[in-house]
Write a structure and sequence with these properties.
40% of the residues lie in helices and 11% in strands. By secondary structure, it is an alpha/beta fold. It has a seven-stranded mixed β-sheet, with helices on both faces. Strands 10-12-11 form a three-stranded antiparallel β-sheet. The protein has a two-stranded antiparallel ribbon with strand order 8-9. Helix 1 crosses helix 6.
C-alpha cells in the first residue's frame, strides 16, 4: 500500500465522509455577524514597509530559531529526532487540517478510521489490548494512566488503602508530579549500583506500611533515564502484581526498544506513548504533543470517553462507558499529531521501526565511546538510547561546571544536552543522539566537547562566561525566574 495516496484518500473522506454539495446559504454582511460596535471605523496604523524589508526581517528572525531542522539536539530522554516532511504534508491536507471538532461523525469517517487504526497499531507496538488517543502529551498520558489505577482500585473497594505510587529514582522526571497530581503519595525507590531498580528495596516498598497504606502502582521507565535496560523488569512485574498493585510503563524512552521489545510482554498493565518523541512529531518549544494510553484488557472499561466504536458500518464517538474515568480533554486531543504518527508508522513498517531502535542504540554507544575519553559515564557499560556523564571531577579540577560546558556548546552551534538530571548523578549531562544523526554530526559534537575541555584547562573564564556568539548572553537564571519580564 502506498502511504501518500492512501492518506490523501483518508483526508478527503475525513472531512466530508461523502462529497457534499457546496452550501447554498447566502453570505451575510460582516456587520450582521459581529455587530457595528466591533468593526473598525479607521484602518489600523501600520508602518509602510516594502516587501523585501519585511521578508528579510522575518527570515532573519527565523534564522535565530534553533530547531532539529537546523542543528543537532542531543537532549536526553526527549528524543528530538528528525521529522520526515511527508508527515507534515499529510497533516496539512485539507481534509485533516480543515476539520472542525463539532462536525457530525457522518462527515468525519476518514479521520475516525485513521484514529481507530492508529489505536490498533499502538497496541501491537506496545503489546497492549486497548488504547485511547486523548492524551495531549506525556504528562497528561501519565495523568490518565493514574486515573485508571485509581478507578481500578476503587472498583475493587481498595481505594482507601491503595494510596502510594512507587517511583524508581531512575524513572522519567514527570512521574512523581503526576502521581501527586492524582492525589497519591510518592514513594521513592532507589537504584542499585548498576543503575537499575534495587529489587530488594522495591520489595520493602511494596509491603504494608505502618500507616496502613499499600501500593497502588509502580511506575517504571525502561530503558530508564540512565540509559540502562531494566534487566529485572519481569521480576519487578511479578512482585508488583503479587502485592496487588499495577505496573505502569512510561513511554518516554520507547525509541530505544521499539520493534525489539514490548512493555506489555514485560508485564506492564498500562503505558503511555509519546507520539511527539518516538513517532517523530517535532516538539521544540513545548508542543504540540500527544500521549495515547494503552492498557491490558481488564482495564479497558475504565478508559476515557468518548471511545471510537463501529455501529452499522459507521464509526462514531461513544460515551456509553459506565466505568470510564470520564473526559480528560476537550474534543479529541492534538489530532494532527496523530496523523503524523500514523504516517510515520506506515512509512517505516515493522522492519523500519525495529531499525530505528537499533540505530538509536548504535549511535548512543558510539558517541559514548568517544566521550569516555573526556568524562566518566555515571554507570559504565552498554547503554541503550542515551547515557549520563558526570562532570563532578572535572568541576573540581577546572572550576568549570556542567552548566558552563552546556552554555559553551551553544557557541559551537550545538544545543546543550539535558543537564543536572537525573538528580542522582552529580554534575550530570544526559546525552541522546537518536537514530537520525550521521556519524559526521556525532564526531563534530564530540570534537566540540573535546575543545571545550581544552579551553577549560587553559582559559576557564572563557567557558564560565559563555555563550559569546548568541543574540543574548548568559542570563541570571535565578533572577529571571523570580522577576520574569517579557518585552515585545
Amino acid at each position: 500500500m502506498k502511504t501518500e495516496p492512501f492518506l490523501k484518500e483518508l483526508s478527503r473522506t475525513g472531512r466530508t465522509g461523502v462529497l457534499l454539495p457546496e452550501s447554498d446559504v447566502p453570505e451575510r454582511p460582516l456587520c450582521e455577524l459581529v455587530g457595528d460596535e466591533h468593526l473598525r471605523t479607521e484602518g489600523p496604523n501600520l508602518p509602510e514597509v516594502d516587501q523585501p524589508t519585511v521578508i528579510r526581517h522575518f527570515v532573519r528572525l527565523s534564522q535565530l530559531n534553533y530547531s532539529v531542522d537546523t542543528h543537532f539536539y542531543p537532549l536526553g530522554s526527549c528524543t528530538m529526532k528528525h521529522n520526515p516532511k511527508v508527515n507534515d504534508q499529510m497533516a496539512s491536507l485539507d481534509g485533516f487540517a480543515g476539520l472542525h471538532p463539532l462536525q457530525p461523525s457522518s462527515t468525519t469517517q476518514g479521520i475516525l478510521r485513521l484514529m481507530k487504526e492508529l489505536e490498533r497499531l499502538l497496541c501491537l507496538i506496545g503489546g497492549m489490548d486497548a488504547c485511547t488517543l486523548q492524551g495531549a502529551g506525556g504528562a497528561l498520558g501519565e495523568f490518565i494512566g493514574l486515573l485508571l489505577v485509581r478507578a481500578w482500585h476503587r472498583q475493587r473497594r481498595e481505594e482507601a488503602s491503595r494510596r502510594r505510587i512507587l517511583v524508581p529514582d531512575s524513572a522519567h522526571g514527570t512521574n512523581p508530579a503526576s502521581a501527586a497530581r492524582c492525589g497519591f503519595r510518592v514513594h521513592n525507590v532507589p537504584s542499585g549500583p548498576d543503575g537499575c531498580i534495587d529489587v530488594d528495596r522495591l520489595k520493602e516498598a511494596l509491603e504494608l506500611q505502618p500507616d496502613g497504606t499499600l501500593p497502588a502502582a509502580v511506575m517504571v521507565t525502561n530503558p530508564n533515564t540512565l540509559g540502562k535496560f531494566e534487566r529485572d523488569i519481569e521480576k519487578v512485574a511479578d512482585l508488583t502484581h503479587q502485592a496487588g498493585a499495577l505496573l505502569y510503563y512510561d513511554g518516554a524512552n520507547l525509541n530505544a526498544i521499539m520493534g525489539k521489545a514490548r512493555p506489555g510482554d514485560m508485564g506492564c498493565d498500562i503505558m503511555h506513548f509519546n507520539l511527539h518523541k518516538t513517532f517523530s512529531t517535532p516538539h521544540g518549544g513545548g508542543g504540540p504533543g500527544a500521549g495515547p494510553v494503552a492498557v491490558k484488557d481488564f482495564l479497558e472499561p475504565f478508559l476515557p470517553v468518548p471511545t471510537i466504536e463501529e455501529r452499522d458500518g459507521q464509526l462514531v464517538l461513544s460515551y456509553e462507558k459506565p466505568l470510564s474515568v470520564g473526559r480528560v480533554h476537550s474534543f479529541y486531543g492534538n489530532v494532527l499529531v496523530l496523523v503524523r504518527a500514523y504516517t510515520y508508522i506506515l512509512s517505516m513498517g515493522r522492519t523500519g521501526l525495529r531499525k530505528v531502535s537499533e540505530d538509536a542504540v548504535l549511535n548512543a554507544n558510539y558517541l559514548m565511546s568517544r566521550l569516555l575519553r573526556l568524562f566518566p559515564v555515571a554507570f559504565p557499560g552498554l547503554c541503550k538510547h542515551e547515557f549520563v556523564l558526570s562532570l563532578r571531577e572535572f568541576k573540581k579540577t577546572t572550576g568549570v561546571r556542567t552548566w558552563d560546558v552546556a552554555k559553551r556548546l551553544l557557541d559551537y552551534g550545538f544545543y546543550a544536552p539535558t543537564v543536572y538530571f537525573p538528580i542522582t548523578v552529580e554534575e550530570a549531562m544526559m546525552v541522546e543522539p537518536t537514530e537520525t544523526e550521521t556519524k559526521e554530526t556525532l564526531d563534530a559534537f564530540a570534537d566540540a566537547l573535546a575543545q571545550i575541555v581544552q579551553e577549560s584547562l587553559s582559559n576557564p573564564d572563557l567557558v564560565r562566561t559563555a555563550p559569546h556568539t548568541t543574540p543574548v548572553a548568559r542570563l541570571d537564571e535565578a533572577k529571571a525566574a523570580r522577576e520574569l519580564k517579557v518585552h515585545w
